[in-house]
Amino acid sequence: MKPEVLQQLATEFGSPLYVYDAEKIAFQYNRLQNAFSKVERFKVHYAVKALSNVSVLKYLKSLGSGLDTVSLQEVQLGLHAGVAPNDIIYTPNGVSMEEIEEVAQLGVQINIDNLSILEQFGTKHPNIPVCIRINPHVMAGGNANISVGHIDSKFGISIHQLPHILRIIENTKMHINGIHMHTGSDILDVEVFLYAAEILFETAKNFTALDFIDFGSGFKVPYKKGDIETNVEEFGRKLTKRFLTFEKEYGRPLTLAFEPGKFLVSEAGYFLAKVNVVKQTTSTVFAGIDSGFNHLIRPMLYGSQHHIENISNPKGKERYYSVVGYICETDTFASNRRITEIHEGDILCFRNAGAYCFSMASNYNSRLKPAEVLWKDGKGHLIRERETFDDILKNQVMIEV
Ligand SMILES: *Cc1c(COP(=O)(O)O)cnc(C)c1O
């Protein structure tokens, strides 16, 4: 999006502000669809946890997307946005049997990732079809916290426990209609992904009545200059070829499914914050903004680098700044970053603010969460109001003391 447009939105809706570009979301969605256009039954389930605003969910539904959810509440958000239950897959980790049953009652596709629940669920509900999340133990993921396929990972049922899975199915007569893997965010390499896919194909042969194979996500998007991104087109060509061969071997039509979050919304998002103070110390120039890791935690949590530009002075001379937040502990967005000259009152724009940004925001320091705007058809639509002090007090109970 153009700096002038973003600047205008910051004036209209105030700061800090999240802005999402609908056109970019559609572009990414269509890119993925096109990469797999030769697969007759191809389905994208957008991973709600990346950005869960109901207007964004509704928009993705209008593009043809289903949803991937990890909690009862995400399922409820999806249903509220008008997504059909059978277009939602539920892939929780470590949740109670009760929650899984509640989601199953809603008609949503269940995906089970541990043997204990698989056995309990199969015994009680042998007629509800279930997908199984396999851990193929392929090491992937850009950060130890988002890499979920390694040997000690808590995610999925280990491929080495396949005999145990098959025994449970035989004993309970439960119906397995899908198998799934999700080895982590930010998989760099198409070949690594294809290797994991091979393991999933091998596994699939043990199940006689599958309707779909879900390859999770892991698409890497560029955050800073020089970052590698997943070559989706090459990946599409290679996996399509392999999938069609497997489908023939398997002897039943299969749906190829993915559940990207980041890939669909990361680059569509812009976070706008105003510079409150420029502070020169002996060694550093700090730009302190009207936000902090309560609104955008990825740099502090994962060491992520979000590109930052000064949209109030895009043509200015570049200088080095450390961009910091107002939270009362270390709260650094960027250290010694080259940014065009910053004046107090300028609006800084953080790129890649669509995925895992607002959805991870909190009220720490009793701060209000920002507003969200969807930029669509040349117009900014408010899709979440800025919080007020009432939201901070909501649910608090002041007792007599
Ligand atoms: C988080 C998650 C995703 C989405 O991952 P991205 O890296 O955002 O694409 C997909 N599937 C499952 C099961 C997840 O937990």
UniProtKB/TrEMBL annotation:
Keywords for the protein's UniProt record, in alphabetical order: Amino-acid biosynthesis, Decarboxylase, Lyase, Lysine biosynthesis, Pyridoxal phosphate
Domain Orn/DAP/Arg decarboxylase 2 N-terminal stretches: 24-266
Residues annotated for substrate binding in this entry: 298, 302, 329, 356
Domain of life: Bacteria
Stated family: Belongs to the Orn/Lys/Arg decarboxylase class-II family. LysA subfamily.
Residues reported in the UniProt entry to bind pyridoxal 5'-phosphate: 218, 356
Keyword GTP-binding: no
Modified residues (N6-(pyridoxal phosphate)lysine): 49
A Pfam cross-reference name: Orn_DAP_Arg_deC
NCBIfam families recorded: lysA
Reaction it catalyzes: meso-2,6-diaminopimelate + H(+) = L-lysine + CO2
Protein name: Diaminopimelate decarboxylase
Cross-referenced InterPro entries: Ala_racemase/Decarboxylase_C, DAP_deCOOHase_LysA, De-COase2_C, De-COase2_N, De-COase2_pyr-phos_BS, Orn/DAP/Arg_de-COase, PLP-binding_barrel
Assembly behavior: Homodimer.
Residue numbers annotated as active site: 328
Domain Orn/DAP/Arg decarboxylase 2 C-terminal: 18-354
UniProt KW Lyase keyword: yes
Function comment: Specifically catalyzes the decarboxylation of meso-diaminopimelate (meso-DAP) to L-lysine.
A molecular function GO annotation: diaminopimelate decarboxylase activity
A Gene Ontology biological process term: lysine biosynthetic process via diaminopimelate
Reported cofactor(s): pyridoxal 5'-phosphate
Pathway: Amino-acid biosynthesis; L-lysine biosynthesis via DAP pathway; L-lysine from DL-2,6-diaminopimelate: step 1/1
Organism from which the protein derives: Flavobacterium cucumis
EC number(s) from the headed UniProt entry: 4.1.1.20
